Amino acid sequence: MSGLVFxxxxxxxxxIDLTDIVPNTLAGLSLHDVQRLSVGTGxxxxxxxxxxxxxxxxxxxxVIEGGSSAIDGIGSGxxxxxxxxxxxxxxxxxxxxxxxxxxxxxxxGSHLASGMRGGIVVVKGSAGGRVGAAxxxxxxxxxxxxxxxxxxxxxxAGDRMRRGTIVVRGRCGAATGSRMMGGTILAEGGFxxxxxxxxxxxxxxxxxxxxxxxxxxxxxxxxxVVLRLINRHLASTLGDLGDLAPKPxxxxxxxxxxxxxxxxxxxxxxxx
Amino acid sequence: xxxxxxxIDDTFAEAFGMSGTGLVITADTSKWxxxxxxxxxxxxxxxxxxxxxCGIDRELAPDETPxxxxxxxxxxxxxxxxxxxxxxxxxxxxxxxxxxGSACFNGLDAPQHLALSAGPRFFxxxxxxxxxxxxxxxxxxPVMDGEFVIEDKCGLTTDGVGGGNLLFIGTDRxxxxxxxxxxxxxxxxxxxxxxxxxxxxxxxxxxxxSKYKGAVASTNQAFCPTLRGAVNSxxxxxxxxxxxxxxxxxxxxxxADAMRAGLATATGIGTAKGLTRISAGNYxxxxxxxxxxxxxxxx
Lengths: 272, 299
What we know:
The complex is a heterodimer of chains A (272) and B (299).
Chain A: E1 4-8, E2 16-17, H1 23-26, H2 31-35, H3 48-51, E3 52-56, E4 61-65, E5 71-72, E6 82-86, E7 101-104, E8 120-123, E9 143-149, E10 163-168, E11 181-187, E12 191-193, E13 201-206, E14 209-211, E15 217-222, H4 225-238, E16 253-258, E17 266-270
Parallel strand pairs in A: 1-4, 2-5, 4-6, 6-7, 7-8, 8-9, 9-10, 10-11, 11-13, 12-14, 13-17
Antiparallel strand pairs in A: 1-3, 15-16, 16-17
Chain B: E1 2-3, E2 6-8, E3 12-26, H1 30-41, H2 47-50, E4 53-60, E5 71-78, H3 81-96, E6 103-106, E7 112-114, E8 129-133, E9 136-143, E10 146-151, E11 154-170, H4 173-188, E12 193-194, E13 206-208, E14 217-219, E15 241-249, H5 252-269, E16 275-279, E17 290-293, H6 294-298
Parallel strand pairs in B: 2-16, 6-10
Antiparallel strand pairs in B: 1-2, 3-5, 3-6, 3-11, 3-17, 4-5, 7-11, 8-9, 9-10, 11-15, 11-16, 12-15, 13-14
Helix pairs in contact in B: 1-3, 4-5
């Protein structure tokens, strides 16, 4: 397999942070230089070479064999190229990602794709809370790109999200799209409790909702052209995802406008 | 020179640099997409009198359009980006936004852009919302049959060409029209060009200026058969009619290809339906940047 390969030497005992350990920043470095990059977040010093067997060469591809939920920041700062994680990933995965592609075979922690601006993230498993959400102190969450999650997503996915598309093949947790300002979230398994609190703009699409907020107004059944555009966009952007490929949206939906507790230009589109 | 009995003048068509843009107009059915496109292209024959020259480039299958519905690609040409923009806004706002089930998308990938939605989207009176998908941004404007979707920007080229032309001269008016129609049909198959006049054909070739103040163009008496004996005519004694095809294109090559297709079709029909001669309009080569010599196009 071409590219750079990180293989975990042993189970991690402390969290590590791979922020900016991405193909576009590693390009041109020797294997020796790569092994000396510091990724520790605890009291003990931890370089990449201490934690991983490093092989291959730096190019547009990075493979992390044996991922772990203790590895944070995977794909953060990715601008181009591909990262493949053959296991789980921790928090802040794809945080601030600008381009390229990140594929994770397992699950991820919280704040997946927070502040993401471009590129594609594919998670075969489930994601923790606050997918595409703003981090504490940040004004906006996700601002571009596309995320596909094969399993479920935790609570408050899309909090303060501004742009981009999140596809959850499973179910979204509570308060999805809270304070959202734009973008699109598809939950093929439906939404949990009260999606869209203080939703200003943006689109939530799913077959069902556990409990609808009283500040969402029923606008009836419609066949908006934008659903066709979303279908085309996902089909053309994601490439061949096999079983993970999102199902095409039905072209007729029931539209709820909200959150009318704020400007109310957002919408919840029920496909079921 | 003669081709299949048709005399080909040793002359050239003189054409001008234009700014151009392209749109994709879709609707629930091909019928309504065409109605929207035709309405938008109405009164778009000559940039001098109409502000823009517009026409349908081609019909698009559902798998070629952004929303997967039937559509048409429309091209618009103007003197400059500044003069094209108000034409774009007014035509889209009055003719596409108003048409049932329509949507309007960018139809030209180019590094420069025109603000396609600036104008029509404000019809939403604050209820319009945008949806950005990848690098493309769309506006959703609530209207009485649902939503009018319009893309935020459309491509702009300043390398367009306006005024490529062919003059078909003949001894039978009805037959000449049939031959010219066949040439227009052949040109319609060439991508990136339009023939903006009615049915693609002009019967009122003009010259620059007039004896009357305020008229910037007037009839070209040298090509009017009924004046043949009274003026310094460019027509032979047996000529009954002259018909012109004017061609605008996004590139000079597209215009040349279109003229080549028109010439090949007309000379292929030959003199059977009354075509005797093919010429082209120019201003002595001093005004337009693009010259298309007929003999080169037949080579």
